[in-house]
Amino acid sequence: MTDIQRSARHGLVVLVVLGGWALRMGPQAAHAGVVVSTLGLPNDDTFPGEQVGAAIQIGSTPIDIESVVYSQARFSGPAPGETFAIFSRNADGTVGSSLFDAFALTYDSAGGNTTATATSPFTLQANTSYWLMMVETPGTFGDWDNSLSFTYTNNFDVTIPDSNASVSLVPGEGYLYANANEGLQLFQLNGSPAIAVVAEPSALALATTGGTLVLGAFWHRRGREK
């Protein structure tokens, strides 16, 4: 094998390695983090009910959900049989139907927070509003702490609607709604933008250069063999 062929092969290996690294380091779905949170607000009271929900509005970026952390410090954790679910939110802000309920609940007695961790993938779609819903067995009341404040932190343009921001299902009375300026439930939604992996131009350039180098070595070898 000639020196130039050895150099070409060596260069190709380097380019393949660098190209693979660039592809992996290109834009990918971000690591999970805080999407929207009210956990920093003072704990002033609690919302009781067979179902209790907090509304969110997704912006232009869909969100892959990881977990929802919600405060239950005042009544020491989930009620027996409590579950968590994502419900649709109708155009008028009312509660729709259950869309996703694959969550596992854990309670931190020191912090007073319950974490509902998604056990299968679910994506909150862009420009869509939802209810994050604590669900009890019929006839059982659960409690979700709330604050009289109505400020919050958020990322990825996810917001809390001004009207019908909270809800409680009370037997005999139905769904009772509260606006954001009346206070918010204490919760934190964790997730990441649902963005497909796209190769950066630099990675594509490396791949193109590698192909050119291989072809050059091939034609050089053919020319010497003639």
Label the CATH architecture of the largest domain: Sandwich
Q: Quote the CATH topology of the largest domain.
A: Jelly Rolls
| Topology pattern, helix = H, strand = E | HEEEEEEEEEEEEEEEEH
Could you list the spans in which at least 5 consecutive residues all have pLDDT below 50?
A: 3-29, 203-220
The rounded Rg comes to 26 Å
**Terminal-residue CA separation:** 16 Å
Using the coordinates above, name the CATH class of the largest domain: Mainly Beta
The total tally of domains equals 2
* Major beta-sheet overview: 7 strands, antiparallel
In one word, what is the shape? globular
Query: How many helix segments?
Result: 2
Share of helical residues: 10-25%
Percentage of residues in strands? 35-45%
Task: Tell me how many strands there are.
Answer: 16
The overall pLDDT, averaged over residues, is 82
User: Helices and strands: which structural class?
Assistant: alpha+beta
Structure description:
- This protein is of the alpha+beta class and 226 residues long.
- The protein folds into two domains: 3-28 and 198-225; 33-193, Jelly Rolls, CATH 2.60.120.
- It is 21% helix and 38% strand.
- Strands 1, 4, 7, 8, 9, 12 and 16 form a seven-stranded antiparallel β-sheet that branches. It has a six-stranded antiparallel β-sheet with strand order 6-5-10-3-13-14, with no helix packed on it.
- This is PEP-CTERM protein-sorting domain-containing protein.
- It comes from Aquisphaera giovannonii.
Topology:
Blueprint lengths: L2 H23 L7 E5 L7 E5 L1 E7 L5 E9 L11 E7 L5 E6 L2 E6 L4 E6 L4 E2 L4 E7 L6 E6 L5 E2 L11 E5 L3 E5 L5 E2 L1 E7 L7 H25 L1
Antiparallel strand pairs: 1-12, 1-16, 2-11, 3-10, 3-13, 4-8, 4-9, 4-16, 5-6, 5-10, 7-8, 11-15, 13-14
Helix pairs in contact: 1-2
